[in-house]
Design brief:
By secondary structure, the protein is mainly beta. It contains three helices and 22 strands. The strands form four sheets. Strands 11, 12, 13, 14, 16, 19 and 20 form a seven-stranded antiparallel beta sheet that branches. It is globular.
Length: 319
């Protein structure tokens, strides 16, 4: 449950892989059903969350991405990102290591606990690569199953070496797609999107179906980089003869409401099937012609068989 990455990394996905995805979702459901109530060792972090002591000794980013898995539950990747420059690296096991204790509590607005767990995020560098490593970020993710509703996601992290702690509370709204109506998931901005190698399992926290998606949690992108986009389409119309949809995908980047870049995929080449009544779109967007600033990414999917469309949007920032 750990990763650090070079912020220049983006992997283009070949869209011809045929790994089965249904087995992944079945195993994720089975894994959730057999989980026991957790034993919490980071009681100091739990106590601070319970006392609502929200503050940040150093900044970190949290995002939640609801993805519908069954009719009554969404699989929600909870992603966390922290800049390595705020962490203290110490020599351990012949590497320079930073270790972060993590406690996460997901609760309904009336205080009912939906999910609770703790974990550790570890980033390792050699002495020769540590200077570069301090300019990079570390990312953590855990997928939880959550029914429709409104929730609070409480996160506490502590740098193990320095003892400094930061806490954050975020809102999470999960609205079930209307039966029979086409809908889109939230958008995941990604540093890297690659096919899963070998058999699908629910062990990799960055695995979604048959893809490994490393999120760009902050949505911050360096000028000249590409950004990956991952999203899901639910309930598209299908041709009675071919059982295939006829979908076109439009990617727009806007600044202050004005269109600055547009990418058309009329043939649906960025789409791939992912289980019954669900398709995935994956796209690497070049951003080299845009200046620094805040932007909005809007994805619109048009259903050519039913003359309808659905849209999802997120924010990003170019440095």
């Amino acid at each position: 449950l750990l990763s650090h990455y070079d912020t220049k990394d983006i992997t283009l996905l070949p869209l011809d892989s045929d790994h089965p995805t249904n087995r992944y979702f079945e195993r994720l459901m089975q894994y959730a059903e057999i989980q026991q109530a957790p034993i919490i060792n980071f009681n100091d972090l739990r106590t601070r969350i319970q006392s609502r002591e929200f503050y940040q000794s150093y900044p970190f980013q949290v995002q939640c991405y609801p993805l519908w898995m069954t009719a009554d539950r969404a699989a929600v990747p909870i992603s966390l990102e922290v800049e390595n420059k705020y962490l203290q690296f110490v020599s351990k096991y012949s590497v320079m290591r930073a270790q972060v204790d993590i406690y996460i509590l997901v609760e309904s607005l009336d205080g009912r606990v939906v999910a609770e767990f703790e974990d550790q995020l570890t980033s390792d560098y050699t002495e020769d690569t540590l200077d570069r490593g301090r300019t990079e970020k570390s990312v953590y993710q855990r997928i939880v199953l959550v029914p429709p509703g409104r929730y609070k996601v409480n996160v506490a992290i502590k740098d193990d070496a320095s003892g400094t702690t930061s806490l954050k509370e975020s809102g999470l709204v999960i609205t079930a797609p209307t039966p029979g109506s086409m809908a889109l998931s939230s958008l995941i901005l990604a540093r890297s999107i690659t096919p899963v190698q070998g058999d699908s399992t629910a062990q990799d926290p960055f695995q979604i179906g048959d893809l490994r998606v490393i999120p760009n949690v902050s949505g911050s992108i360096r000028n000249g980089e590409k950004v990956g986009v991952y999203g899901q389409i639910y309930n598209p119309s299908t041709d009675a003869r071919t059982q295939a949809p006829r979908l076109a995908v439009n990617y727009q980047i806007l600044r202050e409401g004005q269109l600055v870049v547009e990418f058309e995929d009329d043939a649906g080449k960025s789409l791939r099937p992912s289980g019954k009544d669900r398709y995935v779109f994956v796209k690497a967007l070049p951003l080299q012609d845009l200046g620094p600033g805040k932007y909005q990414l809007k994805v619109t999917v048009k259903d050519g068989l039913a003359d309808r469309a659905a849209t999802s949007a997120t924010r990003l920032e170019l440095q």
